[in-house]
Amino acid sequence: MFKIIIVSFLVSSFYALSETPADERNKYKKDEINAMDGGDLCPKEFSKKYLHHMVLIDTTSPLSGPQKDLIKRLVLSDEYLKIMKPIDKLTIMRLYDVAPAANRPVFSKCRPRSGDRGSPYQIDHHDRLFENITEVAGPYKKLFVQGVNDAIDFIADPSTTNPNERTKISGSPIMGQLKEISRLPDLDFTNNSGYENRRLTIVSDLAQNTERLPFYTLCPGNRACPSWEEFKNDRKYRLWAKQALPKFDSSIDVDIIFLNSNFDKQLDKGVLDFWFEFLEEAGIDYNSINFDNETSYSPGS
Q1: E strand map for 62-214
Q2: What is the mean pLDDT of residues 156-184?
Q3: Domain containing 137: what range?
């Protein structure tokens, strides 16, 4: 048996998001960012907030080794971290057996200056008169890049489950997690969070599986899944569907990495249509949702 991994991702779109060029930003020194005691590497005093990139990775079905590698190479590669502009923020969340409102990011930090003389951004280069290369490059390499790599390893480890019985759930609450991302101020991704741009990357098989909307029950085998329009207008679900909508706006760009774990191999069950319609009603511009059909194969069980 094979798992088909269908990737919906446009790498180049990340690089052009922030409107303010890197070299027009403040050149924050190490003592001006939160670099101590597990700090978020963001400026102690923001002059302006630029881009926040939120990556939601669904592991309610465990990631295979090739899937983990694919996420690393396409979404969170070292090259992408280099190209991120200084002070842009990266947050990585894991969707697993934790109630959406109780879920917390695995990683959430601003990209500090790298100290890399080969960087295309002059702001990355250390000031040889006033800065030591180590104090500039250290937070970037040890706290940012290594932190991202550690987060990927943690997320891909199937043994890391929720130990708290009070917040433990089963299923795959994709809609609920998107709702909480859109409204919880501490996640720093609300419409009022103050960023020039926001980008949301969803890594998932998109098989919503909760008591209210169990795709595995509603559309088993070759049966088509309900459309968002059908679901939200069903008398049984319409009140809940209205409350389930995230509160996004048209300033957000969305990329979907569709991990197909045998639920909708041929993309003929209507799952993608459901989520495109759902996200559009949540406030996302339809033209800002990126999807393509690059495929690769890996052994599965």
Answers
A1: 89-95, 107-110, 195-204
A2: 92
A3: 2-299
